[in-house]
């Protein structure tokens, strides 16, 4: 059978699926009949999803089909599916496995090697650096899988996305960090720091790159409440200042009305009453305006001094860079 360049040739898909189902179900002994049938059904369903432009949904079905029954064809199409969703390291490795397993079919070997060579430049790499001499018994894992000392300091192929690196050693505090690897041949590096003794009191955040430490965020609800109170107090103050101004104008109007009943400082009773009323209103206006001014200033202070939640900082991601977040 010829493995097409795009994984699934639209005109030949029905024949391919039928041939695979027959081949899987006909092989004796290696798997239970139900597993063979299930693997064939999953293979067919995955092919339909790829043809429908949904490779992300197809890949898990290929994976399960391969788990139920080992097949070079399924392995090839799973590699093709990985390549479609950008998991180039996984695709590259599977193409090479197909080339190794299909030794009895030179055409398949050539096709798998061709696909592996095409995807190789797009494979991203992650280097996990560590000094074996710095910590006795050091053990390192990447995404839960142990990295032997032979891999330390070597750029290893990985799929793009987040990867978790963990380090442990007897008598040392465990170390953990997350590194973000960019796609399309990007290279990232992370170094395991000197391990801290378990007895140490100075637990701290440790990452291979310097980044600003962030304080715990303030309780946003407290700040919101204080700002609300500031608005209320300030608004009341502004209203009081307005009332003071109105009372001042009313006082001046009364004082001007008294002029008709006075000759300088000598007034008939009506003029005296008007002037007394004007003075009283002016006094009230002054008090009201002063209280309003104080309330406005107080409201402003409440608003501007309210605690605010602090924003956390992060290290940016570049095409050949990575983001680290690590704690002991």
From TrEMBL:
Residue intervals passing through the bilayer: 229-251, 284-304
Region ranges (Disordered): 198-223
Keyword rRNA-binding: no
Signal peptide: 1-33
Keyword field: Membrane, Signal, Transmembrane, Transmembrane helix
Record has Phosphoprotein as a keyword: no
Name assigned to this protein: Tetratricopeptide repeat protein
Lineage: Bacteria, Pseudomonadati, Myxococcota, Myxococcia, Myxococcales
